[in-house]
Amino acid sequence: xxxxxxxxxxxxxxxxxxxxxxxxxxxxxxxxxxxxxxxxxxxxxxxxxxxxxxxxxxxxxxxxxxxxxxxxxxxxxxxxxxxxxxxxxxxxxxxxxxxxxxxxxxxxxxxxxxxxxxxxxxxxxxxxxxxxxxxxxxxxxxxxxxxxxxxxxxxxxxxxxxxxxxxxxxxxxxxxxxxxxxxxxxxxxxxxxxxxxxxxxxxxxxxxxxxxxxxxxxxxxxxxxxxxx
Length: 229
Description:
Blueprint: E1 2-7, E2 16-21, H1 30-38, E3 43-44, E4 50-51, E5 69-72, E6 75-78, E7 91-95, E8 102-104, E9 107-108, H2 111-119, H3 129-138, H4 141-147, H5 155-159, H6 172-184, H7 189-201, H8 209-213, H9 220-228
Parallel strand pairs: 1-7
Antiparallel strand pairs: 1-2, 3-4, 5-6, 5-7, 8-9
């Protein structure tokens, strides 16, 4: 198969496409496919021209860390959870996420995600017995668990038509974290609700594309409904 990769040497250099030939079993993940291309010391493109290893990020390779988020055949996905047999094409295109600054090849800077969470104080903090009692009474534990599985991989932001860089609208992952914090810390809840309204509620057009690409299948619409109420 042909593997087309959008590459970029530094954050300030021009991006360019490079194509590789690869012969791997259909059960191979895209993460393993990149490893396959990078395996040899002498890497060449499809024309036989020497080139360098493809830069990319990974950690767990089990769909838990979110590090290997990229755009595969036009769809934001985790490379370790995307398999050649499911792509239905002899040509695979791989690009870095486009909503974040590129550092090198498929490696992007997602620090804006965490900067925005810190800036708005969206973290649980001290969890008191009264908070636990209130959460249990409301029967919210199941959804709190689902919402808290967010990997901060950025796929929901990549596909969101309203997210343009995180300057004002913070996206679905922010909405889920707001719900978890508001549900589990009564003292912080009023301020968190204000931050939610300012940085998500007033800007979401409810395309719900975020739920389509979420690798953890988080029901963001339920978080939104609870926060909006």
